[in-house]
Each structure stands twice: as structure tokens, then as C-alpha cells.
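We give its fold:
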Amino acid sequence: MVTMKVTFLTIFPESFDSFLDYPVIRRAVGRGLVDIEVVDVRDFASGCFRAVDDSPYGGGAGLLLRVDTLCSALASVAGTSSRTILLGPKGRPFCQRMAHELARQEHLILVAGHYEGVDERFRSHIDDEISIGDYILTGGESAAIVVAEAVIRLMDGALRDASTKEESFESGLLEYPQYTHPAVHEGRAVPDVLTSGDRKRIARFNEMEAVRDTARSRPDLLAHDRELKFFFLHRDAGGEAEVIRWLDGRLPVPAIVWEDGGFLLLDRLKGRSLRTTGRSRKLKTCAAVLRMLWSLDASDCPVRMDNVSVFSRLRKKEMSYDLWCRLRTLETVEPEEDLVFSHGSLTLDSIIVNGNGIVGMVGLQKAGVADRYRDLASILSSLEEEGVEGSELIGLLGIDVDEDRLDFFRQLGRLDSGASG
């Protein structure tokens, strides 16, 4: 077992007395999981007054921690495996992902800033700077304690219950609501499913409740799509929910379990990505999927993703000058469209299969009425990434391909993927 070392550099070492007595921290130290030392920076100050601070050159309110004193203190504890972190307002916002990253370090040195901050030259001696929030503290000691506790509790054996996987932020979600006795309080009963004894139903219910709580309280955590155990969660970019409802009974797609405020929670399809299958199955399934899409009567599809709609959407996005020029060029060579129902971003990963065939299609954020070459271009690119020649799929489809049209939609797809916002 490797013991992690955490060193605090501070001008107020007494700030850490109560932290060292926390049950979780005491247990981690007692089990040899972590070695903690608190170093008083004042011990490295020169002069009879042991001054650790001074007024800034050029004037200004407040004091700064001196670079010479901080560097002397750091040199006394740093080693080849040390990672030095300054706690201060200019740092990266601290999060659970960073806690996991730091928990893999052998030696963390946490430097508690104070007063108006540190002499700027000290930043060349640190590896990172972390902030725990956009507010002002008297000193960095509290922030250093927050970071240390978040890291230490991740170590196996630090908690009595070693599993931390279902806690808030571990899956990118807040933790689901929990209940205990009494079963009924002021007319509010514990949800029936939690007393059913059905572990799968309970797990599914808890996952959905976690999504709902996060969407309501911390929607900023839901900026990216994510695969959960039972569901797939993402923001509806504009018309996916309408398309999925329209596709019901027409094509195999995930069911909408819950939608609110632009968020969609979809049932996860039981199967595997077509990318994981052999070459022959890839080709035959891609051909079958394209035929399914192109055979639909799209006359009453509620969402349009034709070239006019795509160009209009792209113009509203932030993009580089290079992308903007490419957009303007494509608009001048836009071909006449052959409109069908389009998946919009068809790849091997968006086709889910099992031993019996196609389970369904996922990733319908850009689905709607569009030119049939839109899906042909994207699936050919996906096959080519796997080393499969596009001509093999075209041969299975038995069609003559307009290379200029195909190239147009390849470029449009790359442009759509490259634009941000």
C-alpha cells in the first residue's frame, strides 16, 4: 500500500487543528492511507519580525505574501513526486473530476494564499492553481481543507462504506433523493417503489429522480450528453422530441421517459453499437438502415433539416473565419435536394444491434426531412474510419452515386460538426 502525503503551507497552522480531528481524516491517517503535515511558512521568514508579507510595488491596498519566504518553505518540503497547488481566485474551479485526478498523486502540497494574494513570481514555482468558488475568503486555509478532504475521502478505506459511486457529482448528476423512517410524515409518504423490494425498479427510479433533481437545481451540470445505467440524457437541440414521437411505430427508436426544460431522458436500447460487429454485418446493416430511412413517407414529418434550415442554423453559430468562408462557398454550390426522412448524423455508433438484428437508432438530435445524401455521406465516412471502402456499401445499395452531391454533403457534415455554439 502506497501512502499519499499531503502538505499544507500556511501562515496560520492552527487553522488545521480541527481538520486533523475529523473522523474520516483521522481514520485515513490511522490506517496509513495518508500522511499529513502542516508547515508554518513563518518559520522560513527572515528578520526578527519574521515578516511573511509586504506592500505591493506600485502601490495598492493590502499586503502580499513574499515570494522569497514562500519559495524557501516550498523548497523544504518539495520532492520529485510533489505536485504544488496554490489555493486562490485565479485557479481552475474545483470539481469532483479534479478530486479524482489529485487522489492519484503521491504528494500534494497545498499552499494557502492570504491577504491580497501572493507575489506573482511565486506562480512560476507551482504546478496548478485551484479556486473553490467565486467568493472571497479571509485566507486559503479553508479552501485547502476543502480540497484535501475531497481527495482523501476517495481513498479506499477512508470511509466505512467504501462505495462513493452513487454520491452527487460522481456520475455528473446530483445524488437522488433519499428517505428514512417514518414512512409517512405530515401526509407525505415514502415513494411506493422504494418499499417494493424490487432492486432493479428502485435503481431505475433513483436514476430518474437524480436526473430530475439535477435538471431542476443544477442544470449547468447537464451541458453534455451522458449514458446512464438505464437511460440516455441530453438537451433537445430543437426538434428531437417531436421527431421521436413522429417515428413511434415507424422506426425503432428509444422511448421518451421524461422531458422538461429542453432536457430529454430516453430509455437505453439493449444492444451494442454496429461498430463492434464484423465487416459483412456492418455493410448489410448500413444498407438496410438507409433503405428503412428512405422508404418512410416523410410528408408529415414535423421537423425540417433541409439545406435552407441547416444553413440558417449555422449562420447563427459562432465559427471561425475559415468555417464562415467554407459556409459561404457551400451556399453557392448547393444542389437541388431529393428530400426523404434523414437521421441527420448517421454513424456506426448510432445504430444499435443484437443477435437478432437492428434494435434501434439513437442520436436523433439532427433528424428530420433532408436530402438522402446527407445520411449516405455520414455513414460512408463512419465506415471509412473502420477501413471499409464506401464503394462496397454503394454496391449493396445498387445505386449510381453523384460524386459532386456526395462531396457537398460530406463538407456540410464536417462544417456542421466543426461549428460551435
Q: What stands out?
A: The mean pLDDT is 92.
